[in-house]
Amino acid sequence: MFNDWFRPASVREAVTRPTGSVAPEQKAMSPLIALSLAGRASWGPRDYASLAREGVMQNAIAYRCVRMIAEAAASVPWLLYDGATELEDHPLLALLAKPNGQDDGRALFERWYAYLQCAGNSYLEALSAGGAVRELYILRPDRVRAVPGPRGWPAAYTYTVGNQTTTIAPDRDTGFMPLLHATLFHPLDDTYGFSPIEAAARAIDIHNAGGAWTKSLLDNAARPSGALVYKGPEGAANLTTDQFERLKRELEDAYQGAGNAGRPMVLEGGLDWKSMSFAPADLDFANSRDAAAREIALAFGVPPMLLGIPGDNTFSNYREANLSFWRQTVLPLVGRTASQLTRWLAPRFGETLHLGYDADAVDAVALDRESTWDKLNAATFLTLNEKRAAAGYSTLDGGDVI
Predict the structure, then answer these.
(1) How many alpha carbons lie under 13 Å from residue 65 in its C-beta half-sphere?
(2) Where are the domains of the chain?
(3) What are phi and psi of 154, to 5 degrees?
């Protein structure tokens, strides 16, 4: 925006008119023309395709956060219990390990957790044959729509690919809904979830725009912003209104915007360039982009230290940051998925079955786990089975003694 209105008209007129002179019929324009590249902020669209493209596919920080969470969560092994007894071999465990002919369990759940981070929604479809669930498939969130029932809650779902739409509805005989819909908390929606990508969308826009502007400056060679000052021959009139508007319009077309950043300016006679402020090239883009990167990591729950982002890290070392990542972000997500699978899928294999996860298999929490074991082992007032239960293991026959 070119701020010829940044001071009152009376002041502009006083500056441009010599002392004691009479104001002309047509008011002369100020010889100072301010060039400022700061305008109204332009934020990216918030639909799923745009968020996925701009927020994940073109932003290294968000992409790494999604990958870290999805890969870490999918690496945690499932445990299956019948009441209090752990089952090591069961058709449900086999299904989760090999859900279909294309994916193994880890690949399928990587997509499950990744879609949850990108869209705030994940969909898992169960295909049955002979009354038993045989295969599991992940559906892309942007292709699924909920069909509300009479009370407003989803009664069915539609899945659209191209011009073909398939309706997924509960089984008429058993009432089993063959689609599991998981969401992240959304404060304004009863059906769909709210993704970390959308929460961090403005920080992602800043991070992407900083990179785009820096690239433009490198391409065009940086030039400081400032003001054009008209210095005509002595006694010559100032710019007329038409001349001023034409010059302002040419500056907007040729030099405003990130695409024209650093473009060399060709000045006509009587025009002089005066640097009056810091340009984007002079600003510390590294710090502003680091601040945006930390905000993106915060939305995902990933400690900035794990992403190599400098700044106000609150962890004394990498191990503490990694432990916090697993304890506060990954394991709660896995536990929530285990509960959802228990409610949705476990009854198809047995009413008393429930799923859990093996936190002991996670190397990142090994030290924390060893500390717990030492405390339990030193507790002389607990029975063996009480200690095993506190550690997450099933009981043993004859273990109810101190």
Answers:
(1) 29
(2) 9-42+220-284
(3) -60, 125
Q: For 340, phi and psi rounded to 5 degrees?
A: -65, -40
pLDDT per position as a tens digit, 233-290 = 554 556 677 767 777 777 666 666 555 555 555 555 556 666 554 555 455 666 778 8
The H or E element spanning position 273 is strand 271-275
DSSP per residue over 123-182, as a string? EEEEEEETTEEEEEEEE-GGGEEEEE-TTSSEEEEEEEETTEEEEE---TTT---SEEEE
Round to whole Å and give the CA distance between 225 and 33.
Answer: 12
Q: Are 287 and 275 in contact (CB under 8 A)?
A: no
∠ CA 270-29-265, nearest 5°, is 40
- Does the reported pTM lie above 0.85? no
Chain segment 282-323, per-residue pLDDT in tens: 556 667 788 888 999 999 999 998 998 877 666 678 888 899
